[in-house]
Amino acid sequence: MRTAAADLSSLPEGVIAYILSLTTPLDVCRASTVSRIFHSAAQSDIVWNRFLPPDLDVLISRCKSDDLDFDPISSSSKNIFFSLCDSPMLLDDGDKSLALEKWTGRKCIMLGARNITIVWSDTPEYWTWEHHPDSRFAEVAVLLQVWWLEIRGRMSCRILTRRTTYGVYLVFKMNEDEYRGFNFDPAEVRAGILGTESDPKTVCLDPDLENSHLRLAPWLMDHSLEMSSGLEQPKERQDGWFEIELGEFESGDGDDEVEMDLMEVKGGTRKTGLVVEGIEIRPKPTSVLA
């Protein structure tokens, strides 16, 4: 192994940079520790241009320059790459964001609450729109009360990394001590390419099911546990929000549209306290398709 590294280190730096560009961002970071010439080659724009989206210029034109954490002209490709990994770029009217997966450079998209359909969200008796300090978007949707919960989204696959398996996730919080009704009736979710069959599944939206007795009358507890037992439950993210997977799909060559939805319309249970940031579409692990 050391002999092979020594042989490669004798190559011109530009050649090493080209070889590194054929790997992955993770491989490049590891290779940068091999020798000084590898470290120098690993900083090259030749390497990091390969990991940036080919339509980056078009994407940058869709956002406000003041919102960028990098200078598109003077920043190195490496700095741009890691900036997009750590700080999602807001697109269009600021209700959609783009980030890059750090290990592969594949695109991650989030549709903000204003970019999806939430039934009754424009009715003040049921929903309100508020600023949230933990959200990347200007507004989130806050549920006051509904008996019928329906959230839908649709997006072109053209903006995604091609031939990749993506997962779709509802990103949300619950107003602490103020949310009710999500531990009683399961929600039905699904995601898939528009015009194709996608199998729905049922999930529980309550992130604290173990303490659901604090939010239910005692005579309803047995029914709540029976309905929610064994269902997939929300997971807490590193950014402090929760997420629940709605489904997965293959992006293909970008010619299709993906649609996703979450519904709980059968139980008739009053629901309060849900805070919707949006729907995230991100690559599943080891998801690049041949």
UniProtKB/TrEMBL annotation:
Pfam name, any one: F-box-like
SMART domains the UniProt entry points to: FBOX
Domain of life: Eukaryota
Ranges in coiled-coil conformation: none
Residue ranges annotated for the F-box domain, each copy included: 5-51
Classification via InterPro entries: F-box-like_dom_sf, F-box_dom, PP2-like
SUPFAM superfamilies assigned to the protein according to its UniProt record, in alphabetical order: F-box domain
Protein name from the UniProt record: F-box protein PP2-B10-like
Native source species: Cucurbita maxima (Pumpkin)
Gene name for this UniProt entry: LOC111495996
